[in-house]
Automatic annotation (TrEMBL):
Gene Ontology molecular function: ferrochelatase activity; heme binding; metal ion binding; peroxidase activity
Family matches, as InterPro entries: Dimeric_a/b-barrel, Dyp_perox_C, Dyp_perox_N, Dyp_peroxidase, EfeB/EfeN, TAT_signal
Transmembrane segment boundaries: none
Protein name, UniProt field: Deferrochelatase
One cellular component (GO) term of this entry: cell envelope
């Protein structure tokens, strides 16, 4: 056990008491951002800090894990001259680092940033981009599902912040824990890979609403209502590559992708100043749902079915023909569906004086050609929301199944 480990464990034991002290100080003396270390017996960590997610398993973490309040998305390119050997060593190092951090343990060269925090539902998810396979001499193993996404008319993509050989998604219910993991993985990349782009996002923190509810995005809409649910009979076949290698109607998948999934990542800027000028009624017609509770404009609660045929007294459709919820519905897209698991982002003001804010849209599917692509094609042709959003970056990554206890992510590809 090294010094860091000793102090981390000791601090984990005292954090509850320190937290209580901090609360007392806050109540009595204002917000100094300071809490004296307590010397008394430790209290248990709050649930938000103590919750762990498993790193090993059939699927990687961070796909069906409840959305966390802090996230980082980062892409890496392999260094000049680095090939399969270096990539294999890198995935071993990254997997070992992720497993330790997700268990709440420090790394060997820990920076100390998260020393006094619990694992806080940290998840680390790894993916391979299309270019990874040529760089490592594994072109024959590249899934056709990684073929480039089609160009959409509304794309305004920045290639420097798109794609990449490797992709890492980090989520945690604490900002320092999430940053700590990102930094540890960047250090563990060593000379094998360098960061290509990096984005930071957030969601609502656990426990801030009176009851658990679907999250809101920065336009204020309830967003995520009609996501596939793990309890749905077809959830696994929609989201994960089956062990047999391909799903119904999908092109064959390589065996190494069994239990894996494909992540489509889009940084979608929201034109919030324009959006805010719309009346509430018009905002609701853009989506086809009420803003207050996410219920369809045709009535019922949030979970009610959309009545896409209902017309109002004036004979026009209650859920307009170009409403986002109508156009993106699986019933309108031959059953195409995806698991949306985004983070919001806010990177200050853009040069034009408008907020640089929006959605780090991440969606998961067993095959992008049966998930993101057909839906985005349809949205691209006539979504009322498109006047208020701009797709600025894009990435498509093959996310292999989870690592075995004695293995690492990507082993079945790199050491078949
Ligand atoms: C290509 C896929 C999609 C993109 C890109 C996208 C962008 C986007 N969406 C919202 C807000 C909402 N989307 C909602 C539903 C919804 N969106 C998609 C797909 C994309 N959205 C799907 C498949 C669905 C579900 C449709 C269904 O199953 O019926 C909703 C409604 C509530 C919900 O079901 O989640 C909102 C609100 C924004 C703001 C945005 C880009 C910034
Ligand atoms: Fe949407």
């Amino acid at each position: 056990m090294n010094d860091n480990e000793i102090s981390r464990r000791r601090l984990l034991g005292t954090v509850g008491a320190a937290g209580v002290t901090g609360l007392a100080l806050g109540a009595a003396g204002g917000a100094a951002g300071y809490a004296a270390a307590a010397s008394g017996p430790a209290a248990a960590l709050a649930t938000v800090g103590s919750t762990t997610e498993p790193f090993h398993g059939e699927h990687q973490p961070g796909i069906t894990t409840p959305m966390q309040s802090h996230g980082h998305l980062a892409a890496f390119d392999l260094a000049q001259g680095a090939g399969r050997r270096e990539a294999t060593a890198l995935m071993r190092r990254w997997s070992a680092t992720a497993a330790r951090l997700m268990a709440g343990e420090p790394t060997d060269d820990d920076t100390g940033v998260a020393l006094d925090a619990g694992p806080s539902s940290l998840t680390v998810t790894f993916g391979f981009g299309r270019t990874f396979f040529d760089r490592t001499g594994l072109t024959a193993q590249r899934p056709v599902q990684l073929d480039p996404l089609p160009a959409f008319s509304s794309d305004r993509l920045d290639p420097r912040r798109s794609e990449g050989d490797l992709w890492v998604q980090i989520g945690a219910n604490d900002g320092l824990v999430a940053f700590h993991a990102l930094r540890a993985l960047q250090k563990a990349a060593g000379s094998a890979a360098r960061t290509r782009w990096q984005m930071t996002g957030f969601n609502r923190s656990p426990g801030v609403t009176a009851r658990p509810m679907t999250s809101r995005n920065l336009m204020g809409q309830v967003d995520g209502t009609r996501n596939p649910k793990p309890s749905d009979a077809d959830f696994d076949s929609r989201v994960f590559v089956p062990a047999t290698g391909s799903g119904a109607g999908s092109a064959a998948q390589p065996a190494w992708m069994a239990g894996g999934s494909y992540a489509v990542v889009r940084r979608i800027r929201m034109l919030l100043d324009d959006w805010d000028e719309l009346s509430l009624k018009d905002q609701e017609r853009v989506i086809g749902r009420r803003k207050s509770d996410g219920a369809p404009l045709t009535g019922g609660g949030e979970a009610a079915e959309l009545d896409l045929d209902r017309v109002g007294p004036d004979g026009s459709l209650v859920i307009p023909a170009d409403a986002h919820a109508r156009i993106s519905a699986p019933e309108q897209n031959a059953g195409a569906a995806m698991l949306r698991r985004p983070f919001s982002y806010h990177d200050g003001m853009a040069a034009d004086g408008t907020p640089d804010a929006g959605l780090l849209f991440v969606c998961w599917q067993a095959d992008p050609l049966r998930g993101f692509v057909p839906v985005q094609r349809k949205l691209d042709r006539g979504d009322a929301l498109s006047r208020f959003v701009r797709h600025e970056t894009s990435g498509l990554f093959a996310v292999p199944g989870g690592a075995a206890e004695d293995g690492y992510v990507g082993r079945r590809l790199l050491e078949p």
